[in-house]
Amino acid sequence: MNEYRILIAPLPDADGGGYVAYIPDLQGCMSDGETPEEALANLRDAYAEWIDTYNKLGREIPEPGTYGRAMKAKHHEFDERIEKLDADVKDLRERAEQFSAWLRFSELTGVEPDGPSPSFAPKLC
To answer: Which Gene3D superfamilies does the record associate with it (predicted)?
Structure first.
């Protein structure tokens, strides 16, 4: 258990107070207690049961640090998605500005530019 990162946090009074201790790498491996020390002692028992259950079920036990690496990967994926959305929004704004200018030209001159509407114009059914 010493290799795994252990987190201990206070519980709100609405949840009974005390403390919760858990191991993020081992999903569901947690316990609680009135004090941080009691929560940690109870977590040692929960850890032993968690490992025993996973072994009996033939499941692979995650390596220490697995949760942190997974969260970093998710964070990186999230950052990439945000960058893509930012680029898409910028492109849509540029298209909207171009289309607005095209409409203003058409309204002011009464003349539509030759050919089909520009590629930035919305497609009408």
So the answer is: 3.30.160.250
